Structure formats: structure tokens, C-alpha cells
Amino acid sequence: MRQLLSVARQVDLSPCATFPVLSSLLESLRRLLHKLRLVGGEENEACCVLSPLWRRRVASTALHQLSPHRLARLISAQILERLSMAHERYQSALTSLESALAGRLHHTEDIKLAIRKKYAPTFARLCLESTSMCDLLMYGTPELGREIGRGQYGVVYAVRGSWAGRSPVAVKSVLPADERHYRELAMEFFYTRSIPAHPRIVRLHGSVVQRHSGAGPCVLLLSERKVRDLHAAVRAGLAFAARMRIARDIVEGIRYLHSLGLVHRDIKMKNVLLDSNDRAALSDLGFCAAEALMSGSVVGTPVHMAPELLAGDYDAAVDVYAFGILFW
């Protein structure tokens, strides 16, 4: 009601050809003014005598000449016209906002793509190479011991003695097959080295990049050495209580990564390492990515992949799905 009254105050009731009632009313007022009785002498200024009775009579006549139906139609027409104009302005404003938002989103996607494809890998590679140079100068090249494990992209060895004052230490030796693999390795180093230490994430102690003539760089990633991975532990036999404790440790590691805005994207038994007390920690962050910058690329181990990951449209929930497969 308050809005209707506000609109009604703005209605224009100026006389026009389509509103003869007001025109006739004004004409009646002109005729009445000619019939007014003027009093006063030559020396006195003339004035109009308007008695209360006359004013009431004129007001009553004017009101009786007004047509409520015509007034209602006129007011309704003007309100509808104003509403139509306001709606057009509203639609125009919405269209402008949608266009501006679409342009901003497109610009944001371009920035995300540039960060994901160019700036982040380049920065991670510079970080890996500069840190590796410092570690090599300060601690030297680690002495490789027995082979602990072998994966798709590299071999894991035990380090003889200590390295950088830490023991026991494991080293993953990787010879990147191409530039894409080198970028993934650099991103693994960057994420593992950058996030704050957590008992459910395998800590990275350092790195060394070895360059040989006629071959590409060999990257050595040094981390704390665990006893075995979850795959070997399950084959050897684990008690039910130990399995539940390991499952809880994995969940804590996943939640910690997600709290930092990171998605592991490759949760599997080979990437869960156990210490002497069968406490678990997540390793191999090579496929880890910031959730805000994920491109929808298909990465990971097929048997643990969520359907939406295969479709290319996914979020942090893919780690939950992979954990469900692992837990099962």
C-alpha cells in the first residue's frame, strides 16, 4: 500500500485532450471568476470577496463534476505505463550485468588457465632447481643404498647414513621422460615442500637435481623413510584395529589437504606409507592440484577414479571416492 501511494503521488494529472473533465472544470472556474463581486473604491485596492459558503459551493460543484471511473482509468494507465518503463529498464540493467559478469568470468578463466599452464609450473620448476642447488651445496649428493620400491616414473632407494642431519631418509630418483613429466615432478616438490608439516603427510627434506651430459636431469627427492606401503602391509596381513586406525589416518591426511584447498587426485594403497607403528601418511603429491585451478584433466589410477573425474568435471569429492574404493 505504501508503494502504491508513493506511485500515486507521482501521477501526472495535467489537463490534456484525453481528460475533458479537468478541462471543463477549469472552464467553469473561469466563468465563476467573472461573476465575483468586487468591492472597494477608487482609492482602495480591489480585492476578491470569497465567502466560506461560496467556497463550499464551488468545491462541491467541482467534486460532483469529477468522474471516479475516468480518474481510476487514467491513474491505472499511468501506473501501468510507469511499471512497463521500469520493467524495461530492469531488463536492460540485468542484460548489462549478465554481459559484464560473463566478461569477468571469461577473464577469470583465462587467468586461471595461464596460472595453471604457465606460471605455476614455471614457478615450481624455479623453486625446485634453486632449492636443489642450495641443498647440493650444503649437504652434498645423497649416497644411495638398497632399492626400496619401484614405480611407474622412478625408483625409491634408502639413503646410506644420514643426509642433512636426518635419518632414516629415502630418496626417489626420477628421470623425467618429457617436459610435462618434469612439470608434474616440480609441482609435487612445490606442494610437498610448501604446505606446513603434518603427521599424515610424508615430509620432504630436500631435493637434488643431477645433470649428465647427453641425458636429461635426474631429480632426487629426499623424504622421511617409512617401513612399507599399505599394499605390502595388506598382503602381509593387518589386524582389524590396525586397518581402522590406518583408515582414520588417511582421512586426516585428506582433510588436511582439502583444508589447504588442495586435491590429491591419486589416493591408492601404493601412495599410503606406514611407519613402524603402522601409522599412515600420504605420499606422492605429483597429481595434487589446487581445487580453484583444476582444469578437469584426467589423472590418477583408473581403478580409484571417480566417474566425474573421468568426465573431466570434478572437485575435492574425487578423493573421498578414491578413499571409499581403498577402504573397501
UniProtKB/TrEMBL annotation:
GO BP: cellular response to fibroblast growth factor stimulus; negative regulation of apoptotic process; positive regulation of ERK1 and ERK2 cascade; positive regulation of fibroblast growth factor receptor signaling pathway
Domain Protein kinase: 142-328
SMART domains associated with the record: S_TKc
EC number: 2.7.12.1
Identification of the protein by name: Dual serine/threonine and tyrosine protein kinase
GO molecular function, one term: protein tyrosine kinase activity
Species for this entry: Mythimna separata
Entry's family note: Belongs to the protein kinase superfamily.
Iron recorded as keyword: no
